[in-house]
Fold:
Amino acid sequence: MALDRLTQQLAAAFSDRRIFLVGGSLRDRMLGRATHDLDLATDARPDEIRRRVAPWADAVWTVGEKFGTIGLLKYGVKAEITTFRRDAYDGESRHPEVTFGDDILADLQRRDFTINALAENLHTGELLDPFDGRADLQRRLVRFVGEPKLRIAEDPLRMLRAVRFCAQLGFSLEPESGAAIARGAGELARISWERIRDELDGILLSERPADGLRLLIDLSLARHVMPELLDLRLPQPERHHLKDVLDHTLDAVSFTPPDKALRYAALLHDIAKPETFTRDERGIHFYRHEELGAEKARAILARLRQPAALIEQVIRLIRHHLRIPFYSSEWSLSAVRRLMYDLGDQLDNAIALAEADVKASDPSDWPEFQARLAELRSRIAEVGEAAELAHMKPLLNGNEVMDLLNIPPGPRVGEVLRFLLDRQIAGEITTREQAVEAVKREFKG
Structure:
């Protein structure tokens, strides 16, 4: 295997140095999880590491050299080798003052969790486990190294990392560590939104996103990451009384495939229900929550510094998330084409979101919805590719419309172009000649 070959080559390259397999690659191997990269620690200094690997590595990068890390690529495997370190935090910045050291035990002592504070000697195979990390792996427990309060003070992002590891590994949070996080949640104010975003992404894309989100709420972290979630403790309409809006939301997230846009859409699809909640003699209502939710989601995702393209994908899914669940055989082919146009390349994600939304609601709705969805899929297949439909443009341009109707620039031109596009989406106009005739018939005179 490529990992074994690279491990052997590294052992040979550092035969007169101390070098250890550490971090996530060792942890995952001990858990029987697939690992594709290597993390190593050595007493060699960064410039020496670079000299030792440069002659045979396929690529070498030095972005982290200031912090003691040299990266390389060999046999298609990435490895990062870091000089033993001692980190000193000033309690204000998340960036430690890095001091290189010669002691692997001191290096392990500075790490965040016991399950990450393990080291395997590359030369002898000896496992160093000064903080009982192997026992915590067996107990499936995330626990801070040493005093939790100190680890959090050094870098408050570790609180979110603890939740991410629980969600990714299916572990529980050690009670003392959990209590320290709940007490220190406000320290997240020191952390940039970009770093918070990356950890939240990891939680959402994990195998157990709902568990991670519940931990964020229970530990008071959600109040500083996405406080809008705390307002979702609202009753659902009577026929969905089995769970409130928050529980429905978390279940919907867990029912979606691990696609980033899709999981954020599931998380935020009902985010405007608190503002739109009404109750009358006919029951509970959330009128227009999908439209308001799309704009609220835009603000939340912008705050998290998410890429603009992702934000647009998510708000499109949220704005249209009720349409597929309410599909019926009475829809015209034109309505199906309009749905495909509006969703474009997010059509598959929209279907997955609809399935998760229904599955997370009343279970008795599921069989009947599946039958309607099968029919919709069949009709979509008849039309063709939604992404191509979404890129459709009017067959005439503005100048051609003005010449044809002998009108000046203005709102009337836009009205004609919208008319043309609507008819094209509906499949009623397919050629330029048909477009000209339709414009003459509808607007001339």
